[in-house]
Amino acid sequence: MLVRTTAIIVKPPREIWTLLCNSQMDARIPLPFRFRIPKPVECRLPSGVGGAGQQRQCISNLGTINQRITLWEEDKTLMFEMIDTDMYFGRHVTSIKERFDLESRRDLISPGRVSATRKSRERPTSK
Question: Which domain holds residue 100?
């Protein structure tokens, strides 16, 4: 399954990039996350260093997904794939691959804004 989302953000690419690699979310748990949907808590680079081949972690209130970075174009493109997870759905997927693309908007409608697109591909286990 492929899921694609895009948002227009009024921040420079550098600030958005930092959030993809090192961020903590607040402790609130909005209603949708009370139904065993993982709520993101933190994203981090365990070694403190980014780049292709390095590790990234996505931590939620229900567990952690350990990821390997496969493409690192700073302030532009970040791709990674799941190495393993302790989350409840882990045994039901063989892979999760994600890509974030940041593109500065230079059109008349949204100058000074960034188009942030996330593509997530999950592959379920065979029955």
Answer: 2-124
Instruction: Determine the Cα–Cα distance for residues 71 and 49; give it in Å rounded to an integer.
Output: 14
Residue for token pair 């993101």: 40
Rounded Cα–Cα distance for residues 112 and 40 (Å): 28
SS3 call for 16: helix
The domain that contains 77 carries what CATH number? 3.30.530.20
8 A C-beta contact, residue 118 and residue 38:
no
Reported pTM: 0.87
Q: How far is CA 2 from CA 47, 97, 101, 118, in A?
A: 29, 9, 15, 10
* Dist CA 39 CA 117 (whole Å): 20
- Give 10-residue mean pLDDT values along the chain (127 residues): 92 92 90 86 95 96 96 97 93 93 78 89 84
Distances in Å between the Cα of 96 and the Cα atoms of 16, 43, 117, 125 are: 22, 16, 16, 11
> Could you give the number of structural domains in the chain?
1
Q: Rounded CA gap, 82 and 55, in Å?
A: 10
